[in-house]
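dumping the sequnces here before i forget
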Amino acid sequence: MPAKIIETNSTPFSTVDVDSVTVDIIENALKNVRVEMDAVLFRTAMSPGIREQGDCFPMVANRDGKMVVGQFGSFIGGFMDAYEGEIEEGDIILTNDPYMCNAAVSHLPDWIVLVPIFKDGRHMAWSAMFGHMSDNGGMVPGSIPINAETIYQEGIRIPPTKLYKKGELQSDLLELILHNVRTTEWNRFDLNALVAACRTAGKRCVEIAERFGDDTFFTTMQIMLDRNLEAMRAIINMIVPEEPQYFEDYVCDDGVGKGPYKIACKLWREGDVAIFDFAGTDPQAKSSINFYLSEDMFKMFFGSFTINLFDPHILFNDGFYELVDVRIPEGSLLKPKFPAALSGRTHALGRIFDVMGGVLGQGAPDAMNAAGFSDSPHLFFSGYDKNGKWFQLFQIGFGGIPGRPIGDGPDGHSLWPGFTNVPNEFIEAYFPLRIVRYEPIADSGGAGLHRGGNGLSVAYEFLVDGQVGIHDERWLTYPWGVRGGEPGMRSTKRLVRADGSEEWLPSKCDGVNVKQGDTLYFNTWGGGGWGDPFERDPALVQKDVARGLVSQQGAERYGVSINAKGAIDQAATDKLRKKMRASRDEQGLFNFGGTIEEIKSRALEETHLPPPVAPTFSSLDR
Amino acid sequence: MAFRLGVDVGGTFTDLLLIDESSGQTYMAKVPSTPDDSSEGVLNGISRICDESGIDSTKVNQVMHGTTVATNAVLTGKGAKVGLITTKGFRQVLQVARSFCPGGLGGWVSYMKAPLLAPLELTIEADERLDAAGDLVSPLDEDALRRDLQALAKKDEVEALTICFMNSYVNGVHEVRAREIAAEVFGDVPISISSEVVPEMQEYERTETTVVNSYVRPQVSKYIRNMQASLEERLGDDVNLAILRSDGGLASGRAAAESPVNLLLSGPAGGVAGAMYFCERGGFTNVLTFDMGGTSTDVALIQDGQARIRRETRVGDVTVRAPSVDVRSIGAGGGSIAFSPELTRALRVGPDSAGAVPGPAAYNAGGERPTVCDANVVLGYLPSDVKLGGAMTIDRDCAVKAVQTLADAMDIDLMVAAEGIIKIVNESMLGALRLVSVEQGYDPRDFALVGFGGAGPLHANALGILTGSWPVIIPPGPGVLCAYGDATTRVQDEASRTYVTRVDAISPDEFIGALEELRARAAKSFEADGISADQQEVSYQADFRYAGQAFQLSLSVTTEQIRKHGLATLTDEFDRQHEQLFTFAHGKDHEIVMIRAIVRAKSSLKADLKEVPDKKTKLKDAKLHDTKFYYEQDWHDAVIYDRGMLGVGTVVKGPAIVVEMDATTLVLPGHAATVDSVGNLLINPAK
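..and the predicted 3d for all of it:
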């Protein structure tokens, strides 16, 4: 039984003629709505995750639940199918369960709020927004336990539930939920903020309808969807060849000793339709690295990456979905079966963007980027401060943007829209730790005509005893280079104890006890290089050396010789480049830094960590 | 008899306004700017104004000046070579910025980072560390710093030096010591330290702000020295030069040269100040301002006669922590180009602009792409047959040709395309106005809307309809309003610091003590400039939030109020405002984030300005001729009037066009404009 929407006014909306300028104006107005949703949320949210790092995503959808404005695509269709019950004006729905909302959110810490928008008793549109909560209960602080085996271990599961019924807060329910998380007040505020943002959007939609007429607003949303459809039809024909392209990349490990996990994708076009087939992707993992990827969300990733190139002012939406066919095998890493654990999904989610770049790039090599900082690594630090008060810190790591056709990748930046770091002085003022170092790692960006951005080294000195959890990637496989560019340097985690002894921590781990005076070096990875490094102007290499972004020795990766005074030794450079050109292997489109077997055999020596064991999949898993 | 002079130096024109302080009589001049040495244009203007009015130039003893010299240094990337000293481990603080890539999903693909204002080649680290409480972790290694500074000095490139250490917002002791050492090595290179320029939490923002201060400092100092010298030569030794700051207050030339980061929005602040002057005298204290120029539009909100101040200033890509009038800029103005992307056939306007060269197609100077100005010409809003004040000639045929290309691309009628351009650009302005009103919890219908700048009066009536803000006010001299603002504001300075303290952890007395300390700091520059204590007014502000929240509200605070009612009076007020803005209040965990003291000199302007013809004029005397314009899919017969001939109380019924030296006001059908006692045109829906 799908959800039933109760309207007190049964007059149907009609499709009317809307001139194109009015469409543009309403499009503009809806753009403002989305901006305002973000603004309301940032100002009222309380956790550093949302307020400083911007880990949240707004949406406005039409009556049918198709996203008209937003970023991550609509899930309302799936939700409506799954929800049994009636929906009335004033209801506000809350959920965090990926298995219950068609993976609109992909792990439990993302809470999503959904508001049906009514005008004069008629259901007109939807607004929705999700944000990453600081904690969702469960096995570990921050609620991303790497070794969870089922979603039941990952904290409270909220099925689509009415947080407000006809405008009235269900406070018993709210308290029950908040009782289950470690950061009650942060979540309370952040949830309040999500509701305020969605309500604001509702108000604005009603205002727009009042200004232009209900039918005009209704019709315009459809026209906006059609615009995307037509635009994407042209784009797909331009960039997706009929000849199949294939690409595969990996998630290095599952945090419990197995890996790497393959993500395979084949792309081709039949008529106007682009087909992405993930057949060949490895089966689901027993830990929490599974990423429940909804087909619609992938369509959205694909569309927003490509449409921006042609009309960056367009309001991107769901309208083109029929032009993309996404096939994801059941029971795979990307479509695990309930109740598989999902909290550590960020790695596969990030990797999808490298996969998409790799498979699309073969059809349009000129527009292709190297492998980027395709993840959002986390650090959790929690415990009791000197006053006996509980604290928990959630930090997102940043790294190297890849070398791109347009130029070098920025150092220590974010691939995710809107994300920023938390200021170090803020952290020191509110948490018992000191940031001893915060800087890009010289030479970690892959060499290329356009250099990959450097990864970031952050040294955390702990001022009290506590526990840390780490979630990172690309410690084993390389951020690959393209068109002659070298791969970037991989990530490492080094813990230096107060007594000077040193440990290399795995890329994914929970519950690591740290003591006052210990220092953790959280080193992320660099972006891959783009183009032939021997073609790079030696003056640029020299500049990077003077800036501390490339070392004197690292300059040799570009075949450039920099002397002790920091000047270019032209004769030595010419000689070096000639020699290196002669001795290098034939360059393919991609440089993965070796085969998986080669990389694994060198793992212990190079990464101080044993290689993961190849996962075996029983027929039951499939 | 004493005179004061307001001077606004813009990119194209320098506007001057001379005021007789005792009678309020005003004299105006507009002369071409002289970008190589702005003082030349200013002196030309003074000559012109004094020649025309017969006033003895030595009687001018106050020059109040809004300048874009700091802004332009940032926008053109032509500031000083800045050296930077950071705490060890943070050399790359500007390179990493906040890790932010603008744009949506995939925005990183096309993001190009602008060059750092303090290049890494000239950035060194100091071995030192304080903790978040300001306590010593490791002392400053003075010998190593001296060695590194000597090596840096040897490069012979640094023109201004910046020092920003971790946690120095709490304790600047290491920065102060490092400055002493640097001064020994670098001699007279100006040095800015972050604990003095902006003692606020967040190392990236504080570093960037202090670096920007260094970046514009040599140019601004030189500019002010030059200007002061030229003025003294012409106007006598007793002339006082004051510069308008981004927050709308005036600073002495000396104070401005030391903290030039506070001048980045000096230009737009002048416009807002001018608008405030006329609106307040017309009896309007709640106003949205709307300043539309050639390439961009600035909007701001004035409540109870005060412009909203925000704690950051944005110029181009550069954002600094310096107080400024909360002016939001959008890249849409009279010169914005309209186009239609082939793929979507949508109508887009801006952000590309035709600029001054070639300018809109209607200027017939080589521009071929349709602009907002061209649409105004095609629709008849900007009459091609009226030339007043030697303004640019308008060629309607060229405008039609340009807009027709767009109409063809979209397969629509010429007039529909022209009206579409205006509607789209108005919608963008509406978006900007919403940013300063609705998004801050204000209902625009509770405000009047004042339109100025070259193109503002053309679009103001339409925006009034969109926002519901009435009346729409067109002040006198809408094209030279900044000069009015420069001449009518007051000397002001402020001191602030990060406080970050829970309200329940302090006593009222402690809090009052902290405020009074700031007052003393803020009044320092007044003492240096000879403004005595009895000529000063002080006000205090405290930024409140719930502990941990990103949002904060500035509350006005008086020490009397706290003595009487305790700190609860503040927390209650915060809860009330929070609820009004966001529909909920938390009621506990109040935190004071920042506190500041603002000191103003008492007003010195005794007489009101006189801007309307005293003589009783009749509407028909002001009529220039008949015209027609296109609005809402129809042509309307209209009349063109000369604003200079409109006396107090005159009512101009729309459809009409009112022209003056450098601005054109459009009065739409169904609306009427009344001249108020100050000379404002008040447009309202006709009854």
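Chain A touches chain B through 86 residues (CB under 8 Å).
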